[in-house]
Amino acid sequence: MQRLQAIAVDLDGEAQIGYIPPTRIASWVAFLRQIAPYADPKRRMAERLCRNIGHRLQLLEFFAALLLLDYEVKRQSRGATSTLHETVSRMMMHQYSALATHVLEAVGTHLHRVNAGESNDPVSSTDDDWISAIVEQRLGGDRFNYARADLKEELIAMCRIRDQMTLLQVGDRESLDFESLTYEACFIPSYTTFADTLGALSPKWPKQTVLNERRKVDIGGNWRLRTEWENQ
Q1: pTM of the prediction?
Q2: DSSP labels for 169-202?
Q3: Which of 9, 82, 91, 128 has its CA 20 to 30 A from that of 160?
């Protein structure tokens, strides 16, 4: 767990200045370039898109490190101790899920664009388009064991979490979205679906990234939840 913690400054002693860095942008770019590496340069993921996604992946690493540490502390203390204020942790869970969904949308939209015969030109893409593109691309690999319907449903579920901020469906009997932003209902499903989906699209997935810290070992509810976690 030490790798998940930021390095604190000791104000009473000799100051320690530093932090645990995220994965290098060059590593994320190398990973993204190996997602459907087309021979035609016009069909490859653009350099700017790779770097844009790479910086978002670094931010996701920051969110994941804090949330994984908080989850582990709460688990070990049976909820008696936490490292984040509850409001902060729940809002960070939503931020993680929303940003992870946007990253998958960016990758899926690129796949949709080149599958449609387009070059690196702007293209309209709905959730159905980019999700279908990822499902089709992903099911062709040998590192993925989801059924087609399972993968699609998990990606749709991430979109539902993302859309909670906009309150597209509001009713008097609806509970606050804050109540659903828990580790079991929000973060763990988003974290596992994101890692298992994106990480299987390219052999260059950085093995030491905190986004790959845990692997799922159990299934529950409508999500393939990791109810018990083990080190990768």
Answers
A1: 0.82
A2: S--TTPPPGGGG-SIIIIIHHHHHHHHHHHTTS-
A3: 82
